[in-house]
Amino acid sequence: MSDDYLIFRPDDVDLTRSPLRGSIDAPTYVLGAFNPGLTRLPGGNLLLMVRVAEALVDPVDGDCARAIRWTPSGYVLDRHPVSGIHMGDPRQFALKDRRPPLLGLTSLSWLLPVEISGDARTIVKVHYDKAIAPSASFLEYGVEDARISLVGGSWWMTVCGVSAERHCTAMYHSVNGLDYKLLGVVLDHQNKDMLLFEGKVGGKFMALTRPLGECYFAYPEDSPWLGGPAIHMAQSPDGLHWKPLDTPGIRARRGTSSTQRIGGGSPPVLTPEGWMLIYHGVEKRESVGVYRSFWALLDRDDPARILRQEDEAPLLEANPALTADIAHQMYLPTPVVFTTGIVDAGGHYIVASGEADLACRITHLTKERFR
After folding, report:
1. DSSP string, 56-68
2. What is the CATH number of the domain that holds 205?
3. What predicted TM-score, i.e. pTM, was given to this entire model?
4. Structurally, how many domains does the chain consist of?
């Protein structure tokens, strides 16, 4: 097997065991099984926390589009008149003539723990009994994009919670890496891609964040930086209450392909040189954009001090050869690789990514690549 391959695909999901099955009779399919959180379990195996985006086979019924929503009594299908929506992105639709935009999703996401071997080569067990599905109103439209960090002997997992109330970051916690308890909202509306450092700094938890919004201000024309969504940092005494740092974090630079936005990818891991992390940069193209992975190195004692930012040559790009045999399932118009996890494997790193918002990709990278 090569050092770059797909480990889990949409057809690997058994939807008869989906958490939606008890409520919805309408047929569904796996739009994507992707963007997996990654961690090492106490016994040495690895855990992928796979995002399963489950979509309706027939999203349009008569003159209405339908969206799946969780409620305390089960899942329901909301109806939106087709005449009142616009779809420019296959992952979502927008209500017409609404400012700020009001969106609906073409799928609902839940998390599936997939245990794989310590070398990330084979699937050991798919833990349907430990799946993480919406369980609160702030998760009513889905639980997305888990990132897992081992800090102080326990596992902290951030997710993006989607609801009409807020688009937030929620926190889960585990004492064994496999069973997770929901702790609630930790960052409010549209602060995405939060991931904790794998270790404390000055006795405090540290995290990358990425606030979004509709209004950004331009840098001067002679600035090396581009405006727009960027990676910020925050610290916490307990992992639940977060104070943003005053200094800026990692920003998109002029002359690079990250012209639309950047955001966190893998949890920062401590190396002899400092905190190393992989992040994503987006090049504006069509409705979705091209996603690539880059990396940066932060000072071990003052992570706001960026020692190195490798944002010209990508660390990872989408690889069409990996998805050639499932190309008929692809729905995005542009190439996407979205890194979501990393573990130390001795002489190299094992990196987990979402490929094409469709499947889970594993890449083995030598540590020399980051020097």
Report:
1. ES--EETTEEEEE
2. 2.115.10.20
3. 0.96
4. 1
